[in-house]
Amino acid sequence: MYAVIETGGKQYRVQNGDRIAVEKLNIEDGQQVVFDKVLVAGEGADAKVGTPYLDGVTVEGKVIESGRGKKVVIFKYKAKKDYRKKQGHRQPYTLVEITAVAGKQAETKPAEATPAEEKPADAAPVKKPSLKSMKKAQLIEFAKENNIDIDEKATNAVMIETIEAALK
Question: Which residue of 30, 109, 124, 125 is most buried, as measured by CB atoms within 10 A?
């Protein structure tokens, strides 16, 4: 199982045993760290996506070391102006080994019944809130599910008007 976490303004795809270098954390070497900003957790079709974060899902890790990266040389130069400026920078980092991806959302759940199966047969179809964001094939499929006759060669705008008129 993997997870996508956010820390230090960056996102990392991690799983158990991974070592990642993140922006410096104020945690001693050997201490545990918990990342609670989890964007995605799971595997394949069972992956859960947060809006923006998943509730109750955490990624735990152990701080291996804190240090500074390789030196980056910044050299500014303006031709014919006798201006040269050389500067160096070493970005601080913390190396973290991921030990666990855990939480209630990360575990696989049995498939729940869809709203279409739960509603009675004589109930009116529910209007989709985002018809305008659907592609042509999705609009055709939605119309067939709700027994709406539409011209499949029509434009998306015409299909949306027809579906909205039929749903009223």
Answer: 125
pLDDT reported for residue 114: 46
* Residues 127 and 167: beta-carbon distance below 8 Å: yes
- Amino acid sitting at position 159: M
> Within 13 A of 14's CA, how many CA atoms are on the CB side?
29
Q: How far is CA 131 from CA 5, 22, 116, 134, 145, in A?
A: 32, 41, 18, 5, 14
* C-beta of residue 123 within 8 angstroms of C-beta of residue 112: no
pTM attached to this predicted model: 0.57
Backbone phi and psi for residue 7, each to the nearest 5 degrees, phi listed first: -155, 140
Q: What share of the chain is helix, strand, coil (3-state, %, to 5)?
A: 20, 40, 40
Measured between alpha carbons, how far is 36 from 7 in angstroms, rounded to an integer? 9
